[in-house]
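FAQ: What does the model actually see?

It sees only this:
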Amino acid sequence: MKITSGLLQITVTLFAAAFLCSPGSSSFGAETSPVPENYIERLDPRINTIIPAEAKLEKIADGFAWVEGPVWDKEGGYLLFSDIPNNSVFKWEEGKGVSLFLRPSGYTGKEPFRGKEPGSNGLAMDAGGNLVSAEHGDRRITKLNKDGTKTVIADSYNEKRLNSPNDLVFRSNGDLYFTDPPFGLPGTFDDPKKELPFQGVYRVSPDGKITLLTSEIRAPNGIAFAPGEETLYITDVNPDRPAWLAFDVNKSGSISNGRVFYDAAGFTKTQKGAPDGMKTDKRGNLFGAGPGGVYIFSPDGTLLGRIKTGVPTSNVNWGNDGSVLYITADGAVYRIRLNTEGPGF
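And it is asked to produce this:
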């Protein structure tokens, strides 16, 4: 592992009003702007045990370019999320609203970034409460240490640079699993600086060893474990086969028996967006961000319902006491309180 030199600048100053708006949303029921009407779609009676009748979708922040990677800091009691095009991580705190947490978040080069997505994408917290980021522009996974330095967890495979790590999840034994599509490269699949001939899904053990789990997914994106960690979900945003995929997790940490958990083609043909980030709850239900909102599946693969945002939706995560689902969608952040909880709360 490598330690970058110098301290990163971490600030809590707000960007200009033109860059982000309405930072003061501070309580449930205090919207910054209207949310879609009829935003709960109930397709199976089991959804009623997950989304209460009085559930309210609240928009808590707006005005960003493209937000991703929401993660709840349990120790600090606040939400962090990426704004990828603006190379920043923002912080949202109850009663205080939005502030800039980290910039640059994913690209530290001196030359202007030629692509559209230089910043961090997926975010996670390790067992020590440190922020771990999938960095597009610098093409690596890093850990932000308490002293402000960064530890590089992974930046290459077989001496070739990673494409642009997208999303990540920790296993309870400390292994880090992440996806590596080329969407952070200016030329994506055809970028001249792309060094790997495939798009991989990887595992990094606590000792720093990186293992390729599969290179057979055209465009791996979101990633999440089912409770018990016997199943790993990965989304494929390949326009020819957009889908939520499922894999068995073997005792060694490898994956096998890849299969389509749910075909997303019917959604991507009629709405903007694709299957993206996702999380499970303690019951094993899968909450998958995708075209127009969040898709909620039972462990048997039944689509139970949707939380509709009306825009391409990038990711979700649990916060507060574990029953609040935070949603990043286009340039806004939402939250909704449910009758279920995320693992680890």
